[in-house]
Amino acid sequence: MTKSPCFPMNTSSPRATEPSFDSVQFRRALGQFATGVTVITTRLADGSYRGLTASSFNSVSLTPPLVLWSLGAAANSLPIFSGNSHYVINVLSAEQAHLAERFARRSDNPFGDLAFRLSRTGLPIIEGAAAWFECHNRSQYPEGDHVIFVGEVEACGYASQPALLFHNGQFSSTPMR
Predict the structure, then answer these.
(1) pTM
(2) Residue 126: strand pairing partners
(3) Can you identify the CATH homologous superfamily of domain 37-171?
């Protein structure tokens, strides 16, 4: 295996002491980047399920198969996802915007009437999702006001269909070719 060359960083430029923008401008600029929408699922010690909506999903590596997502450091579910060995990342299809909204809100039982099957480790895989990734909770990195989760994919599946996108504060979908 060939190693990639390391390039030295340019350390001669001074770092800005304060951003030249406010948080509203930053959020609006980020909103111009279309992202897929996922629901991350896991199981609690009592056997019940927990899920949340996340658009901060990305691939990291093919070998080994790694993906990442992030969760707010103040999220109530952070101890659950930090402590569990596995989770499933469900990439929502264009027809599942209602699930993105459902799992973005607090609810006693968002899984109540949800159609899902269980993964190898007993975690919910949402029926109709465009793709899913069952991940071992490999590592976590606190950065800013979020924690970045890196998952090693142990199983995955997909259905070729339009995916749900989030862009400029609204849901849309990818066109099929």
Answers:
(1) 0.86
(2) 116
(3) Electron Transport, Fmn-binding Protein; Chain A (2.30.110.10)
Amino acid identity at 103:
F
3-state secondary structure of 98: helix
Cα distance between residue 63 and residue 52, in whole Å: 27
Amino acid 66 reads: L
Tokens in use for 167?
Answer: 């862009």
Torsion sign over Cα 30, 33, 38, 40: negative
Residue with the two structure tokens 């027809």: 95
- Could you tell me whether strands 131-143 and 49-54 are parallel, antiparallel, or unpaired per DSSP bridges? unpaired
pLDDT class for 172, splitting at 50, 70, 90?
confident
Q: Confidence band (pLDDT; 50, 70, 90) for 31? A: confident
pLDDT tens digit sequence for 64-74: 999 999 999 99
Q: Distance between CA atoms of 154 and 167, rounded to whole angstroms?
A: 30
Q: What is the pairing mode between strands 66-72 and 86-91?
A: unpaired
What CA–CA distance (Å, rounded) separates 73 from 95?
A: 30
Report how far Cα 23 is from the mean position of its chain's Cα atoms: 22
Angle at 111 between CA 74 and CA 157, to 5 degrees: 90
Both tokens of residue 159? 């259905």
Domain ranges of the chain: 37-171
